[in-house]
Amino acid sequence: MNEAVTCSSENTNSKMLLARCYHVTGIVQGVGFRPWIYQLAKRYGLCGHVLNNGEGVTIAVQADMAALQAFDHALQSERPPLARIDSLHFEPAAVDAALNDFSIHKSTATTQALVAVGTDKSCCPECLKEIRDPNNRHYHYPFTNCTHCGPRYTIINNLPYDRHNTSMAAFAMCDDCRRAYEDPLDRRYHAQPVSCPKCGPQLRFVDNQGHELATREPAFTAAVAAILAGKILAIKGLGGFHLVCDATNHQAVTTLRLRKHRPAKPLAVMVADLSMARQYAVATDAEWQLLSSQERPIVLLQKSVAAEIPLSAAVAPDIDRIGLFMPYTPLHTLLLDAVKTPLVATSANLSGEPIITDGEAILAQLANEHFRVIDAMLDHNRPILNGCDDSVVQMCGGELQVLRLARGYAPLSLPSKVLAKQTLPSVLAVGPQQKNTLALNIGNTLYLSPHIGDLFSIGAEGYFQRTLASFKRMYHVNADLIVRDLHPDYASSRWAQEQIQPVTAVQHHYAHVLATLAANDFDGKVLGFSFDGTGLGADGELWGGELLLADSNGYQRLASISPFALLGYELAIKSPFRLMLALLLQQFSIDDIIAMELPSLRGLSPALLRNLAKIFAAGKMPKSHSVGRLFDALAVLLGQMQDTQYEGQAGIIIETLARRAEVEGKTEEASALQLQLPLRQHPGLLLGQWDTVALFSQLLQAKQQQRDNGVIAIAFMQALGDAICHSAVKAQQLLGSALPVVLTGGVFQNRFLTEYCYQQLQARGIQRLPQHLVPVNDGGIALGQLWYGLKHATPLPDPI
């Protein structure tokens, strides 16, 4: 059954006809691929048909050899804007002499999906023109879209990607929308979310008691008035709700922080366009391009102080970076057009919980009698089937670095040539405890889910299971093997152990390195520097500062940060003065430490310090090899932090200090300190242990000499970077091979440290594997687990 008007073929029997059947996989559904094929068929006078199925797109064509060759060349060299071809092949087919046209056939379903689910994309220029044109039927319509933009992943229930498999199934198209939807030459041909004010989703404005106050355009007008009046709104976007207020209204921003119990963590700001962005940030051309790209991520940029109307100081307090992003839906665009001011737009959720996707959940969680965050809600009736947060990225050393993989980039699909040599089983990787993502494969294509988050609550575990169910449903997979983190008490590990499939565990920092191998489709050995906050090591200790000689088969631990005690277990992470105290107790008595009168310890009673010293002396506290914890201890020593208010806070503070000192021309002063992280011989480690006590002793001395905090911050990160580079050189020499280097783990989100390492490695001629779109933090671990599972799984027998 055909879905569209056919086009007549120019073919006649005067030439020899040949027939081919093409099979295409990749991002080829919901991106205008079939109408593009239709247009190519019309261009070259081909007969046949094109259809979607769970495996991708199938194209049957017949024509003379010259026309087929021209068509084949166009397939290889042209492409719709959002399409990506992962595989393309054809086989000869039988000629149908009666065939005289080309048509688009109805989609068919298959038992296993090979097509990549498309990612949500921001509103295209053509749709933006229409919503601003009073004479267009889409004028001011906040859900305008076409095949070049709009929702994909967040509205899909199943493959193939057709309207009845999306959350738009309940919206019957009006005559105008149906005409566009059925015209292969219209850019809205089979744009599944296509709609207009007559037939599509609509807004509603609701107070924090759940009373509906307005709908449609009046709802929009009420939301604009509320924002301008300093109110805090929950506004439904593509993949979930934002908490929104005027970013220049200090009272509104501080109220949001108080209500949400978020005292310090930076808030993202949505700006109307590049002109507005330039008032609040200083950036390179590459960063401006990233900010305005169709993915529309939150981009971390250098703050500007030149704004005529400044942002509230509470937006990103005490740091030199700000996260900006541009509107990515027609609704956001219309809001920014109306309010003419930047907006705080932060994920709507309870602390530690996933983003909220449903209006009733907003009212229940953020507008109840005990916890009232919002004043009102701008909701709509297009269901979000798959939640998806905003992506967070930055430019680091001229390369894109992904910190949170989500809207615009995810689900991320990575076809692998290395894995294409054998028939592979289905493997599911369930990721770590924090910044969780999932990964699975279909054949030799790897898929990494959008950011799920930290699995510390029942709500977060539920979100994990819903995302997993969506992936299983969309890709029609049932895993033959499950891969988990080595830590048995992670929520994802516990879930894996409850399943009937075989389960294998992969060490956390090794998985970090493997994720980079997968990102580069690389199958050789590397020197992997895996630096983060924590992860269970193979010896039962807490790792986090590791140099691993690694490949897909296994790893050898070459070097590690020397351990220090976590005084009070988890309390040491929340109150990192305990980390600093543990480092000091490795070389000084408690009396000596109290006598130092360190500013960071002045508010603490000597009795508490002496009790902690006794606990330290008992030697029963767990020990950490973590570079991330070393940043925490330094931030306390410098008097910049007492309690950790959000993950990565110390790293951001240290980088801010370093950047300010760099701007003030203090880099040479930092280099003159000549801080070092020496490498000492240690049993079982080929290179040895980096001596944290020696480094911290130097940091203490610099602080006691009243050196500038920024100078100390620079010198500390230079010492870390020098240790990395010297160890890479030494390892290459001992191993007799110029192995490439991997820099992975959350510590390398610190741009100052990472860019210093890039420069030093390049100066020494050492190759480094980039991360590409795979998060450098724990968000990439599931991909590393998947890579390990696929490399170690028993290949399936080749199909007969």
Task: Tell me about this structure.
With 800 residues, the protein is of the alpha+beta class. Strands 7, 8, 9, 10, 11, 12, 13, 14, 15, 16, 17 and 18 form a 12-stranded mixed β-sheet that branches. Strands 25, 26, 27, 28, 29, 30, 31 and 32 form an 8-stranded mixed β-sheet that branches.
Itemize the secondary structure elements and their pairings.
Blueprint (H helix, E strand, L loop, with lengths): L6 E2 L9 E10 L5 H12 L2 E7 L2 E8 L1 H13 L6 E10 L7 E4 L20 H7 L43 H8 L20 E5 L4 E4 H13 L4 E4 L4 E6 L3 H11 L8 E2 L3 H7 E2 L2 H7 L6 E6 L17 E5 L4 H10 L3 E5 L11 H8 L9 E5 L11 E5 L2 E6 L7 E4 L11 E3 L9 E4 L2 E4 L9 H18 L5 E5 L5 H7 L5 E4 L1 H12 L6 E11 L5 E10 L2 E8 L2 E2 L5 H4 L2 H9 L4 H7 L9 H13 L4 E4 H11 L11 H15 L3 H7 L5 E4 L2 E6 L1 H13 L4 H27 L5 E4 L6 H13 L17 H12 L8
Parallel strand pairs: 3-6, 9-16, 11-14, 13-17, 20-23, 23-24, 25-32, 26-29, 27-31
Antiparallel strand pairs: 1-6, 2-4, 2-5, 3-4, 7-8, 7-16, 9-10, 10-15, 11-15, 12-13, 13-14, 17-18, 19-22, 20-21, 21-22, 25-26, 26-27, 28-29, 30-31
Helix pairs in contact: 1-2, 13-24, 15-17, 15-18, 18-19, 19-22, 20-22, 21-22, 22-23
Shape: globular
CATH architecture name of the largest domain: 2-Layer Sandwich
The radius of gyration is 28 Å
Number of strands: 32
Question: What would CATH call the class of the largest domain?
Answer: Alpha Beta
The profile of the biggest β sheet is:
12 strands, mixed
Distance between the termini: 32 Å
List segments where confidence is low: pLDDT < 50 over at least 5 consecutive residues.
Answer: 1-8
Give the tally of structural domains.
4
What is the average of the pLDDT values? 93
Approximate helicity band: 25-40%
